[in-house]
Amino acid sequence: MILREGDVRIPSGCAISGIIDKSRKRFSGEEIIKSIAVMRERGNGLGGGFAGYGIYPEYKDYYAFHIFYDNAEIKKQCEVFMDEHFDIINLSKIPTKKMSEIKDEPLIWRYFVTPHPTKLKASQLDEREFVAKSVFKINTRINGAYVFSSGKNMGVFKAVGHPADVGRFYKLDEYEGHCFTAHGRYPTNTPGWWGGAHPFALLDYSVVHNGEISSYDANRRCIEMYGYKCTLQTDTEVITYIFDYLHRKKSLSFKEIAAVIAAPFWKTIENYPYEEKEKAEYLRNIFASLLITGPFSILVGHQNGLVALNDRLKLRPMVVAEKGSRVYVASEESAIRIIEPTLDRIWAPKGGEAVVINATEDK
Amino acid sequence: MNYIYPEYEVVRNYARCITCRACENQCSNMVHCYVECESRMESKDDNCVNCHRCVTICPTRALKIVKSTHTFRENANWTGKTINEIYKQAQSGGVLLSSMGNPENYPIYFDKILINASQVTNPSIDPLREPMETRVFLGCKSHKITRDGGGKIIPKTTPQLDLSVPIMFSAMSYGSISYNAHESLAKASEQLGIYYNTGEGGLHEDFYKYSKNTIVQVASGRFGVHKDYLNTAAAIEIKMGQGAKPGIGGHLPGTKIVGAVSRTRMIPEGSDAISPAPHHDIYSIEDLRQLVYSLKEATDYKKPVIVKIAAVHNITSIASGIARSGADIIAIDGFRGGTGAAPTKIRDNVGIPIELALASVDKRLRDEGIRDSVSLVVGGSIRSSSDVVKAIALGADCVYIGSAALIAMGCHLCRSCQSGKCNWGIATQAPELVKRLNPAIAHQRLVNLVIAWEHEIKEMMGGMGINSIESLKGNRLMLRGIGLNEKELSILGIYHAGE
């Protein structure tokens, strides 16, 4: 029997792409499908997915849960849990299109929820922590239910298949948002189900990732001490939790997070001016076990923007481009040119150099 | 009548021997003697400890030492070793004494663990072309971030040790080893950017200049402990136990308490230096906490405090207790750890392997969410760079090496340190023997060893696609067991090869 991803660790090669409009002007999901489709050669049809930000303006104050269910029985079980912990404002099947390229689909449901006020109060947690904890409870305790998206005014759409097909399957062209990321996956073996496809998300943080990190188990064993549980054995999952931990719980800026996970070399730090040196040394020291080694290029989506980061040796390709209020990031330049042939600027960021793109204040 | 037949025989090739009498000169055990009337050398095998001094020094390679083929009637239960021990005790009425680490045939888990390497999906990294980092900080890694009014991070940590490579020289006292051996360790540490440890023998006034690289020990006898000793050090280690003799103290005979040794230990010449089995002010965990904080108070909270314990059955709870007692670093010494002298039966039968102790402690501290509040240093015994890599991947921050350092200086592991007649000038206080160890050469040999290991560690890290040692720490997916049973694998927290 082929093991499901999570019971086995599967390395992958990949393509990533992202588009953000800094002025929060919304555009159709069609564009990101076009971009990721160019890099078909970088995937093998065993995983594709998208994250869209600003796609649920009518429900923007509610957490949007996207959930995979193995069967109706598990759905019932999970909904009992959801009812106990949340007020469910709206629920529906996520609209999909039947197509021969996408097989073995689970039940895919969407819920707009807000934490139950008395439950939230009793938990003594802040709202986001309460939601994150609930996601972990479902994912680790209800076998066969899997929350793969849990942020506000954002959503993840993923499946086993080529990303262009996955986009059409989820009718992504019918969504409008101000930021989209996409992923085409090349896993070495059959994932067995859809959970391991990218993006990986927790709350409004979503990560698409190309690479295989050599620090995986060091990172996993560290982050699991701080309330996270890695169920999928994928790099992307652990990277998402590290971002959530350092950004949401430790209030580090994205530049500071880059100085932890893709830390500058000691030799570089030595030549920093005194104050910067002290800070870089401090961050590397206290968060030593969150340093990520091995190849990666990642795109981290969040409620206020997009972050692009390469490993410190730049062992994976990644280019960034600008045009007006739009910023594009992709594994290959062709994936940007296909949607915007004339660019104001295009460059390849150095290894470890975080590109932090902030959208304007959310009104 | 002596019931014991010599264990080793000195074989002399008379065709090569030029009767230069160098062997006679060099042997403190008086094995060799010149027979005037016959103009030839003779040997007294009974005295030989197989330390190879004569073999190495002989200019014509006329000597070798072989294991005696003399044997008892075969018996799986009553081995020659056991029978000889009984003869010795029947004659002396005393406790059997031994030195260095447990030599018995227990499993060596390091030898049943294999290391990973990258193929295809992830590139290996060539340390000759790319940066490969082995710098390590030891101490509490608190994730509590504080910022000033302007939002800038205040980069303040509790005191830390800063090492160029995660290897330190473990505690060996001045008294158990010689002045020259200590000087070699101190010098090498300074040159390498690592630390050595005074053991419970005080710090000789000549070595205060190496204090930046010195860890001073506070053990149950409190020998050599005073304010300057504590304040000059880079870190303070409370020694609760030692892998070679868990549960018992130490005894340096009065014959070795002479001159500078007596002054440095702050005890009268000729008096036995007896370190009690427990610290008599520490009968429980809360007492340890008081000592940790007393030492921190005495040094103005500027020094990390290490608590060293022997790996025993209940190690996980003990380590967890220590982690909550204000210690910055926990050092665990496995049952293979060396010693200058220990009761043989304790050395060979008490304690547990460091690999299992380390894996359990690392896991327990993580389960309790307190792994980042202490660093883990392990020793007893780390024999090579691959042991270092495996120890770190199992979860250690750093290793202690003792026996390997002594061997680098010339020790031949004859395990007779307790006699004080070390022909290599290491485990002795006899001036004519001490001077055989030249610190200028010995410290360079120590430096060479650590540099060679560092090269090998970097090669193995690069092979795994890891370019900084912190990404190796606790990275157990990089290890696989070979020939281990389910229980052993589960304690080590690793998969079997092929999985």
Beta-strand content bin of chain A = 25-35%
Give the radius of gyration of chain A. Answer: 19 Å
pLDDT averaged residue by residue of chain B? 96
In CATH, the homologous superfamily of chain A goes by the name Aminohydrolase, N-terminal nucleophile (Ntn) domain
Biggest beta-sheet profile of chain A: 7 strands, antiparallel
Helices of chain B, by number, come to 15
User: Radius of gyration of chain B, rounded?
Assistant: 24 Å
Number of strands of chain B: 21
Largest interface: A-B, 46 and 38 residues
Number of helices of chain A: 11
User: Span between N and C termini of chain A?
Assistant: 51 Å
The run of helices and strands of chain A is EEHEEHEEHHEEHEEEEHHHHHEEEEHEE
Proportion of residues in β-strands of chain B: 15-25%
Low-confidence stretches of chain B: none
The CATH architecture assignment of chain A turns out to be 4-Layer Sandwich
Low-confidence stretches of chain A: none
Count of spatially separate domains of chain B: 2
Structural class of chain A: alpha+beta
Give the strand order of the largest sheet of chain B, numbering strands 1, 2, ... along the chain: 9-19-18-16-15-12-11-10
**CATH homologous superfamily title of the largest domain in chain B:** Aldolase class I
